[in-house]
Specification:
By secondary structure, the chain is α+β, with helices and mostly antiparallel strands. It is built from six helices and 24 strands. The chain folds into three domains: 91 residues, Nuclear Transport Factor 2, Chain: A (Roll), CATH 3.10.450.350; 133 residues, Nuclear Transport Factor 2, Chain: A (Roll); 115 residues, Glucose Permease (Domain IIA), CATH 2.70.70.10. The strands form five sheets. Strands 11, 14, 16, 17, 18, 20, 22 and 23 form an eight-stranded antiparallel beta sheet that branches. A six-stranded antiparallel beta sheet has the order 10-9-8-7-6-24, sandwiched between helices.
């Protein structure tokens, strides 16, 4: 009986062992199959990455470098660069290939050329890709719109050292500082008037790409600059003829006959209007019938008002000189320029660049000597009371009031927002 039990136990153990071996072999086979599937999937994924992934390197176009040479500058061989140029000419005029724009070359993870991109402007991108079904060297080019969205945002900030930096600290482009200077430039000289602690607020259209980068700015609907606790406010309004302009909340025009400065930003006055000033070169006392602005060579000089260029050229001790005739008997002079950007007889607008600061003629350093005459008599520009432009007309006042009452409450709340918000 005992021997029978032993035999039965051996049989049970043998069956159990066989079952364990079977299960182990089955599980191992399943694991091997799963591993093989994973290896295959990984290989397919690697092939997909190699085929579909494009890694871009980008650079800004350099001044004076054409499209073909720019492509060679980013690593393309001469033949490839030439073939790409040929393909582009049918869809894009390369005379509009501009310095500063973004040029990108895309390659696969193995280094194969997959695409070339050139940003024409904030709204359009030129794409060039190898042409499928063609021998190596064939490319196809097309232009696509750049996806973006436009929204109206509120921006607020405080001046700690300069308006430029204040706008940057608010998270926006310093372009908006220039835009503000143009709006309030009839009342404020942004060289000398800003103070630490001044504040600003804006309601502006902002265009952004899908990745969040800023594409550009559109209209400024309302703005405020608080200078030493004196607020200057502006509202954009189109009159019955559709002409745009900025007006104060009462409908008065911000624009005046002349801008408050022939320069836009941060140039100190180094010499004021005087009947008797010691000349640093001639070593004598003589009248200084203008205002000297100390600024680096190359700083843009703007016409303070609309007018016609009387003369533009070299004029002895005045160096390179531009003279502009304005309405109502006014004439302005811009002296010691390093470069002249207008010609005699040309009509210029207020704010238009007419030259660059320099030190030509009798000058000890780079600066702009600016002078203004009224009916042939030199006047002190700092003391000159500038006549305003026409206010909103009575027939347009109802429409203006609607626009003002739409934007000004939103502008007032901008100071309570963070640096910028919807």
């Amino acid at each position: 009986m005992r021997r029978i039990l032993h035999i039965a136990l051996y049989v049970v153990l043998a069956i159990a062992g066989s079952t364990t071996v079977f299960v182990t072999l089955r599980d191992r086979a399943a694991a091997d199959a799963e591993l093989a599937n994973q290896v295959k999937a990984a290989a397919l994924q690697a092939q997909h990455i190699a085929a579909e992934t494009i890694l871009y390197t980008s650079t800004r176009v350099l001044p004076g470098v054409n499209f073909t040479d720019s492509l060679r500058g980013v690593g393309l061989d001469p033949m490839t660069a030439a073939n790409i140029t040929v393909s582009v000419q049918s869809v894009f005029d390369l005379r509009h290939f501009h310095a500063g724009n973004l040029l990108s070359v895309g390659r696969s993870v193995t280094g194969t050329l997959r695409a070339v991109r050139y940003q024409i402007d904030p709204d359009r991108m030129l794409y060039v890709e190898p042409q499928s079904g063609k021998s190596s060297g064939g490319f196809q080019a097309h232009i696509q719109p750049i996806p973006s969205r436009t929204e109206i945002i509120a921006i607020a900030g405080t001046v700690r050292d300069s308006l430029f930096n204040a706008v940057i600290e608010s998270g926006e482009s310093p372009e908006l500082a220039v835009r503000m200077a143009e709006i309030f430039g009839w009342d404020l000289d942004f060289y000398s008037d800003p103070r630490v602690g001044d504040t600003f607020r804006l309601l502006v259209e902002k265009k952004s790409y899908v990745d969040g980068q800023t594409a550009g700015y559109g209209r400024i609907f309302a703005a405020e600059y608080n200078n030493a606790n004196h607020p200057y406010q502006a509202v954009l309004f189109h009159d019955a003829t559709g002409s745009p302009g900025y007006y104060g909340p009462d409908g008065g025009a911000l624009q005046k006959a002349f801008l408050r400065s022939p320069l836009k930003f941060a140039a100190p006055i180094t010499s004021h209007f005087s009947k008797s000033r010691f000349h640093p070169i001639l070593k004598t006392y003589r009248p200084h019938l203008g205002i000297d602005y100390g600024a680096p060579t190359g700083t843009p000089v703007q016409s303070i008002g609309n007018g016609r260029v009387l003369s533009a050229g070299y004029s002895g001790g005045s160096g390179n000189l531009v003279r502009i005739q304005h309405s109502n008997g006014y004439e302005t002079m811009y002296m010691h320029l390093s470069r002249i950007l207008v010609h005699p007889g040309e009509h210029v607008e207020a704010g238009q660049r007419i030259g660059l600061v320099g030190m030509t003629g009798l000058a000890t350093g780079p600066h702009l000597d600016f002078r203004i005459l009224q009916n042939g008599t030199y006047r002190n520009f700092q003391m000159l009371h500038l006549p305003p432009a026409e206010p909103v007309t009575r027939k347009d006042m109802t429409a203006f009031t609607e626009v003002r009452d739409k934007w000004m409450p939103m502008l007032a709340s901008a100071g309570n927002l963070s640096a910028h918000a919807r």
